[in-house]
Design the sequence.
């Protein structure tokens, strides 16, 4: 199954049967209190342009339309709780849920998830660390997100150790050529750059996550032939990671801009497109 659904996520996932998905990855709003937008432009050759390029050619810059969403909630946990309860219901007996947040709300959501799943079902806190952007002078720069991993059954869940992508040793001479060639397994701190501005991977969605980050989650915590669910799908990174590694996907988002980005990005996989909501997305539903 490869499906992209435009719908308010809660109304749609309530229609799905119990125990349908072995892996659910969610990148919900971070409640930054800001309008999220990334300004983009393209350069077009134009003899009347003001930019000078190779061979004396002249160019002009044109702004590109960029997706925008308001990331602000009066009661963030009230918004998230019913959706997380549905995620719990939708997991298979050996399924896992990953919830991706930053420092603003992750601690409160951890307590909420403990109440839904039970504290013993919490397996890992994974820190995604990156080094990009500004550095304020009045506090330590915030350069990490957190992924909370909960298992439906803490004694029986999918964890494909051999599928882990290994990383280089910092001192390969100390471990010998065999270990150095194999590399080492990552810890619960994952160093991975954000999607670079000039990357072919870039879709223009404000909070797009790196494909390599989602590929690690998908490969280790699901099996070929499984179907992965993401109901804050945004730019569709979860879907691409799943499809690249022989998994299916169900991606849900209410924002028409997100649906269009996913439609283009995942066209090669010929997903089914379902339009259940023809109304503009309300501010609280707009998420990449």
Sequence:
């Amino acid at each position: 199954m490869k499906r992209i659904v435009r719908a308010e996520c809660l109304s749609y996932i309530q229609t799905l049967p119990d125990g349908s998905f072995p892996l659910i990855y969610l990148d919900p709003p971070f409640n930054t209190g800001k309008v999220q937008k990334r300004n983009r432009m393209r350069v077009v050759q134009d003899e009347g342009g003001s930019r000078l390029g190779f061979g004396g050619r002249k160019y002009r810059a044109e702004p590109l339309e960029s997706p925008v969403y308001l990331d602000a909630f009066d009661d963030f946990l009230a918004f998230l709780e019913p959706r997380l309860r549905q995620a719990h219901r939708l997991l298979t007996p050996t399924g896992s849920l990953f919830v991706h947040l930053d420092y603003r709300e992750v601690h409160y959501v951890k307590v909420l998830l403990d109440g839904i799943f039970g504290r013993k079902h919490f397996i890992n806190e994974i820190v995604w660390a990156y080094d990009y952007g500004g550095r304020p002078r009045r506090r330590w720069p915030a350069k990490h997100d957190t992924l909370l991993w909960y298992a439906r059954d803490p004694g029986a869940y999918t964890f494909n150790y051999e599928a882990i992508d290994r990383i280089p040793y910092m001192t390969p001479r100390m471990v010998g050529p065999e270990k150095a060639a194999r590399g080492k397994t990552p810890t619960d701190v994952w160093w991975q750059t954000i999607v670079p501005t000039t990357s072919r991977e870039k879709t223009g969605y404000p909070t797009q996550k790196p494909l390599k980050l989602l590929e690690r989650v998908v490969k280790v915590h699901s099996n070929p032939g499984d179907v992965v669910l993401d109901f804050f799908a945004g730019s569709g990174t979860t879907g691409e990671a799943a499809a690249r590694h022989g998994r299916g996907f169900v991606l849900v988002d209410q924002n028409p801009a997100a649906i269009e980005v996913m439609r283009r990005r995942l066209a090669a996989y010929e997903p089914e497109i379902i339009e259940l909501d023809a109304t503009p997305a309300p501010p609280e539903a707009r998420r990449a």
